[in-house]
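Protocol step 4 of 6: structure prediction from sequence.
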Amino acid sequence: MDNTPFDDKAERALSHLLEHFWVLRREEPEWYQTIREREKILKRYADDKLGFELIVHQHFIKLEKIPVEPKTWMGLRNFQEPRDYAMFCCALAFTESRSIDEQFLLSDICEEIKDLFPGPFPLDWTNYNHRRSLVRVIKELETLSILKSVEGEIDRFAMDSEQEVLYETTVYARYFMRSYPRDLLDYETAESILASEWERHEADERRKRVYRKLFLSPVVHRESENDPDFAYIRNFRNRLRDDIEKHTPFRLEIFKNAALLVAEEQKQGWTLFPDQKAIMDVALHMATYMRYYDTYTPDEFGTIRLSRMALETIMTNVRDIYGKGWSKHYREAGIASITNDVIELLQNWEMLDIEPVTNAYIIKPLFGRATGHFPKDFLTGGDEEHEQKS
């Protein structure tokens, strides 16, 4: 039996695996070695608590992170429309069919993507928007180390469809896609793929659902009166808190309508709220305004419904109070533009939903936990140092 303790090295390795798609031995040799040294205890914890498989390969290590339900923010950050994803899948089919280190031209993958593309209208490389989609796809493949540029630059293709780039496939090209319990063609919907994930976790599905929600999402909200996942968190909160604090650098916080993991300090490589982006100042001031200055009352699940007009009115009032301390961009931007940026940010952090039928904006309980303010003498013309956030 392996008696290696779940020590600080294992804790840091687990955090790194959760934060990154994979660890490439060539790019991160120290992390690769650390994970190898703690491989058995990491595999045991990942499988027992989250139902995740830790894949250890001679060239990379990958924790297969499968969410309970897909969220908008889980998409590839630089992709802008469904066409990008369709082209990305076609490109993966192309790279998987190539030998390791096999070289090919950009025109080769263009031709293959065009032939495989499933959309109702064919791709046209004379169309600027189609070329921009391809540029985003190729850049993502390079970022993931699936493709390696040998000669040339893909950005030139955006302006000229005749531009060539020489690429080669890497050893990682065949490992990006995860394996499925059955042939992928046996699944008719994305929902059926996610549902099949629980076939091997029936005995402890609830615990693993809860762990996945806590570790992969910013928050777990109580969605109904008898929400079974949230009830599990409340009923086993002490056990969950002890386990999470023992094995990770996070602390479990539980409120009436929300549960979340909180980091005690900022660490490089983590994605945390708030970060240093200028839009965070706006969002934190909006949270403060709604908490202390506004009269909206949350419902039993801690949510607040707002129309677009009401949201823009709030934003106008927030700017009147705090705007002089914002970045130049947001001091000069229109209210509609600022509101759109805040909506996108809050959606990505699961602090806001848009109701499909009415298009009402639903402010979620997690937003109520945020607040931000300037030093007391800032608004009166005194110290104009950096904004304080909490």
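Step 5 (inspection) to follow. Residues 382-390 have pLDDT under 50 and may be disordered.
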